[in-house]
Structure to design on (645 residues):
């Protein structure tokens, strides 16, 4: 079984956020980590590898420095890493990103593609399902407890306070959540091996069946009007000394005062 | 000369740091209070290969170098000195001598499961009457047919009772020289827990590293197969001394980690703690104390890393190991004591990690060769 896991290097939320003049993130200037949902997706793939045997390829699109997350994934147990990097791919929104990644995946043999639900920098949750759409694959989102049965995959899809058990024919695409999968640590030997291995680097020319007009900042329908740091909200008002009836009256009064009701 | 870590060691350091913070830190206080061996943490370390870091892959290890191993013990010890010494005693004192002196059969039978962490290792040299004077050991092994018969006792054995495999040093011959003076010849043995005649005595109640299991070992007509002799007969003392050279680097790393952990806690505390209307880190006394502590920790770190590199590149590294252990242990004791002082009354309570760290630090000046022994090793070398 061949599994492709799409991962993204994202700014570490513990560090500061730096913007480019055009409103996009200045990724080179920020501390970076593997996106937590993607790490959960990688963990899901590695568990399938442990249980059924699989070749796990990790793929990322980003700056050359994004190689770091590929090395980390390989130190956790992924077999191979592919970095898609090219100046013409910079500034991509979810459409241009999913087009690029689908173009890279078309070069690979795969039974399963796993992505994180969403990245902590953009929070769109669009790229995974869009890749499936580009490749004409079924998509199962928010998955956990993935099992393989013949040519099919069976998953539990998280749904509010319950989950749905879904079965899909492979090849298909799954999205994973960090809440559902505790990722493993790297191993020391895995780190040494990962840094000795070659990483495959692809540029625009390696993308299959994609149009230049769908790539990079130019191919991105999303235009960022303005970007800013979060505005700090006030601490609010605490009224702990009111009885239930008084509290209701107080809330209604405040909502009315602010033209909410 | 380049003092920056390469990418491999930087990633390994991050791994050990994450593991120590997530897995060892939450249990450190409880482990100290209850004196219970942290078995669950050891099982996790087994899963991630921490029990065989610098053992070659063909023997079940991770195939990394001594520096990687040192960084593992260091990072673990920043959070929990007990966890650090469990790895150090297992790796340096049990895996290492089997790797260096074992036959291929011994490596396959003992080193592979040890390096994979499926079995835990220990080393037994010290006896009630033989500490620094290791030559005073009395435990005897007499060859009887295809077996050695072991009699005697060992004390202060780290990982005692918890370990499955023990390297035991025993007298196998007493020679008389031309002047009629008697000289003991020692041999090293691999002894499995559960061997008839091998039992455990008292568990030590210690000042620090209280979760580490420290036991007396008792051998009463304990029969060991001849093939469990480690190295050549009569060469056990040299094996023990060489093993301790490596062990000292592990303990130096433990001491370094404890010192770094205490320094960081002192920095955090003094920035938070307010007296006379400002953080105590704003007072020059605090600043100078922290500056001294940080400088000594950095000096210790360079010696410890240098000793690890010497183990990788040199046949003999006794002096490097002795200097690293001497310096790191004394820095650990000084820095933890000062960290307690900077915490004031809070530092004297068990609510704060520095209290435990000060107690943990003390043993690093004592075991695997006291600071006085390290000075003997170093001075013998420079005066020679």
């Amino acid at each position: 079984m061949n599994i492709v896991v799409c991962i993204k290097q994202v700014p570490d939320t513990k560090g500061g956020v730096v913007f480019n003049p055009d409103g996009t993130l200045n990724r080179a200037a920020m501390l970076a980590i593997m996106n937590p949902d993607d790490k959960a997706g990688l963990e899901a793939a590695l568990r399938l590898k442990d249980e059924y045997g699989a070749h796990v390829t990790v793929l990322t699109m980003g700056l050359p420095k994004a190689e770091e997350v590929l090395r980390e994934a390989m130190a956790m147990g992924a077999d191979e890493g592919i970095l898609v990097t090219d100046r013409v791919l910079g500034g991509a929104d979810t459409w241009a990103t999913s087009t690029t990644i689908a173009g890279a995946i078309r070069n690979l043999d795969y039974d399963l593609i796993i992505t994180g639900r969403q990245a902590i920098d953009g929070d769109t949750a669009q790229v995974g399902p869009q890749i499936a759409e580009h490749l004409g694959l079924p998509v199962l989102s928010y998955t956990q407890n993935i099992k393989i049965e013949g040519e099919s995959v069976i998953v539990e899809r998280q749904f509010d306070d319950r989950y749905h058990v879904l079965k899909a024919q492979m090849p298909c695409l799954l999205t994973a959540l960090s809440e559902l999968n505790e990722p493993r640590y790297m191993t020391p030997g895995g780190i040494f091996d990962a840094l000795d291995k070659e990483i495959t680097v692809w540029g625009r020319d390696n993308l299959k069946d994609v149009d230049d007009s769908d790539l990079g900042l130019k191919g991105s329908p999303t235009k960022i009007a303005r970007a800013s740091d979060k505005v700090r909200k006030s601490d609010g008002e605490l009224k702990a000394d009111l009885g239930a009836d008084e509290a209701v009256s107080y809330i209604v009064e405040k909502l009315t005062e602010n033209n909410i009701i | 000369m380049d003092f920056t870590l390469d990418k491999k060691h930087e990633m390994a350091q991050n791994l050990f740091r994450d593991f120590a913070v997530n897995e060892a830190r939450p249990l450190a206080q409880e482990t100290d209070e209850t004196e219970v061996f942290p078995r669950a943490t050891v099982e996790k370390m087994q899963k991630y290969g921490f029990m065989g870091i610098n053992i070659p892959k063909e023997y079940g290890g991770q195939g990394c170098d001594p520096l990687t191993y040192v960084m593992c013990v260091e990072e673990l010890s920043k959070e929990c000195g007990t966890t650090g010494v469990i790895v150090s005693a297992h790796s340096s004192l049990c895996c290492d001598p089997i790797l260096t002196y074992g036959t291929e059969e011994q490596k396959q039978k003992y080193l592979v499961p040890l390096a994979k962490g499926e079995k835990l290792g220990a080393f037994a040299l010290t006896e009630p009457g033989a500490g620094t004077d290791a030559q005073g050991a009395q435990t005897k092994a007499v060859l009887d047919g295809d077996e050695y018969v072991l009699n005697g006792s060992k004390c202060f054995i780290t990982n005692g009772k918890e370990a499955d495999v023990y390297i035991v040093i025993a007298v196998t011959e007493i020679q008389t020289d031309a002047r009629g003076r008697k000289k003991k010849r020692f041999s090293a043995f691999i002894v499995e827990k559960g061997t008839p005649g091998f039992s455990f005595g008292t568990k030590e109640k210690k000042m620090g590293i209280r979760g580490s299991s420290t036991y007396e070992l008792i051998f009463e007509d304990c029969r060991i197969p001849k093939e469990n002799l480690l190295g050549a007969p009569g060469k056990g003392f040299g094996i023990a001394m060489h093993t301790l050279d490596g062990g000292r680097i592990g303990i130096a790393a433990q001491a370094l980690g404890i010192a770094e952990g205490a320094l960081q806690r002192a920095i955090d505390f003094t920035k938070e703690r307010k007296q006379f209307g400002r953080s105590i880190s704003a007072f020059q006394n605090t600043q100078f104390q922290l500056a001294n502590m940080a400088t000594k920790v950095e000096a210790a770190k360079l010696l410890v890393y240098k000793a690890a590199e010497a183990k990788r590149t040199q046949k003999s590294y006794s002096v490097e190991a002795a200097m690293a252990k001497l310096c790191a242990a004394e820095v650990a004791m000084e820095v933890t004591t000062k960290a307690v002082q900077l915490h004031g009354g809070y530092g004297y309570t068990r609510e704060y990690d520095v209290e435990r760290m000060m107690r943990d630090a003390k043993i690093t000046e004592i075991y695997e060769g006291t600071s006085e022994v390290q000075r003997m090793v170093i001075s013998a070398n420079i005066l020679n």
Observations:
- Chain A touches chain B through 13 residues (CB under 8 Å).
- Chain A has one domain: 2-214.
- Helices of chain A lie at 36-52, 67-76, 94-105, 127-135, 188-196, 244-257.
